[in-house]
Amino acid sequence: MTAIPSAERALKRGGILTAVGLLLVAGVYVRALAFTPEEATQGLAQKIFYIHAPSAWVALYLAYGIVGIFSVLYLFLKDPRLDLLAASSAEVGTVFTTVVLVTGPIWGKTIWGAWWTWDARLTSTLFLYFIYLSYLVLRSAVDEPGRRARYSAVLGILGALLVPFIHMTVYLFRTLHPMPVVLQPGRPRVPGPMLVTILYAFFAFTVFYFGLLWRRYAWARLRAARAEREADGADASR
Amino acid sequence: MRSVLAEAWTIAAKDLLLEFRSRTAFLSALVFTALVLAIFNFARDPTAVSATDLAPSVLWITFSFAGVLGLNRAFSLEKENRAIDGLLLSPASRTSLYLGKTLANLVFVGAVEAIALPLFALFFNVPLLDVLGALVLVIALATVGFVAVGTLMSSMAVNTRFGEMMLLVLVLPFLLTPVSTAAEITAKLFAHRPFAEWAPWLKLLAAYDITFVVLCTLVFEFTLEE
Question: I need a labelling partner for B64 at 20 to 30 A (CA). Which of A151, A194, A218, B208 fits?
Fold first, then answer.
């Protein structure tokens, strides 16, 4: 019976971290708009990069990485908490991917003159989004928790391998997306103040992600604990 | 190893025998394929887009949809009367169950493709004979890739609500690599480009097959009841 109070506590703590993350993200806006120099050729349009790139880092690598790792761990250990964690990360990752797919075209329209192109990064992000969505749809279509956990773990692992393949497939055609400017060995092209803002934005979005993940996971545990208590109650009254 | 393959073959033979006796799924997949090919022909402006430009995409869209239709069969068959329990209780291993089901699906989809290909050449007036060998190789590789993933997915989809719709949602993202590489190679073959130009796509397709056949074989047991 200790499951419910501890999940409620976790929900509260996750809420605090989410609030801190949100404040840090607000700081990204302030710093990017007021204290970072404008990019010479792109002008103000480049500012969206401080939201787009950190969201992409969270959505593509951090959130999906956690889905993949916890899916593998679940299949080995069969601990339901691992499944809830993977599912929570998938849900939060879907939100961040939405941010990436919304902010990208806004920038693309200004700089490329087109909302969308079928470039390697754009396509693999879009397909990652499809995998996130089918992961969530699959979960909603299976009622039995054990089966739901196994199925979504299988899809989570397959999806983790699919994304690099999609990237390579489209990369063989051609690519239009700007090459990485932050992590490129040899020549740091981004000027100092911009780099500080970028690194700070990555940090802020990472904290925000963990806040949301924590809260979402605590909520999932709370719901599972309540369902269990109800089942116990139904047994006792019989 | 030999016993795994022997068991897999027994399971595949059982499925194929069932299909051979009723032929419902096969005939409907075949009629569906012919219909799609015919409709595609009217969905283009013949004066604007030449048949050979459109042909590779038509071929691969038709094949992938016909393939997905066939995939549903494998496990919905076992769901009736809970026949899957019998298979799980039998001494056959889970790996051979997966390989057997994949093999049966491969034969099924391959048979549909074998009939659809001449029909495609006829409807779209594409000279196939001089590139037939390479084309068959590409079709085989792409079919192995998506049938391997599709068989795994259909084992899950059959136990979900709206299973047939769910199968499409699960499989379609995984079709991108095999279908787009195969379509690209097909286009280059029809244009008589040299091997060096389509070799990178062939490598990617082969890498996809190896990765997903191995991975799907490994994780298949988790889609079954314990």
Answer: A151
Q: Cβ(A74)–Cβ(A83) under 8 Å?
A: yes
Encode B92-142 in three state secondary structure. CCHHHHHHHHHHHHHHHHHHHHHHHHHHHHHHHCCCCHHHHHHHHHHHHHH
Q: Closest to B211 (Cβ–Cβ): which among A147, A161, A169?
A: A161
- 3-class SS of residue A2: coil
Tell me if B159 and A172 make a contact (CB, 8 A cut-off). Answer: no
Chain B residues in contact with A158 by the CB 8 A cut-off are 149, 152, 174, 212, 215-216, 219
Is A127 in Cβ contact with B176 (below 8 Å)?
Answer: yes
Does the residue A79 lie in any domain? Answer: yes
Confirm whether A238 is domain-assigned. no
User: Could you give the ipTM of this predicted complex?
Assistant: 0.87
- Reduced to 3 states (helix: H, G, I; strand: E, B; else coil), residue A10 is helix
Q: Are A22 and A236 in contact (CB under 8 A)?
A: no
- Is the CB of B169 inside 8 Å of chain A's CB atoms? yes
DSSP state of A43: B
* Residue span of the structural domain in which A160 resides: 3-177+191-232
Short-list A52, A67, A19, A64, CA closest to A211: A19
Please report whether residue A142 resides in a domain. Answer: yes
B160/A161 touch (CB, cutoff 8 Å), yes or no: no
Q: Which residue of A75, A131, A138 is in closest CB contact with B160? A: A138
A138 touching chain B per CB within 8 A: yes
Between residues A146 and B85, which one has the greater pLDDT?
A146
CB contact under 8 A, A161 and B212: yes
Could you read off the pLDDT tens digit of each residue along chain B, which spans 226 residues? 678 888 889 889 988 898 888 888 888 888 989 998 888 888 777 777 777 778 888 888 888 888 888 888 888 878 877 888 888 888 888 889 999 999 999 999 999 999 999 998 888 888 888 888 899 999 999 999 999 999 999 999 988 888 888 998 999 999 888 988 898 898 888 888 888 888 888 999 999 999 999 999 999 999 987 6
Is the Cβ of A161 closer than 8 Å to some Cβ of chain B? yes
pTM: 0.87
Amino acid A110: pLDDT: 86
Q: How far apart are CA B182 and CA B39, in angstroms?
A: 22
Interface contact A166, partner B, CB < 8 A:
yes
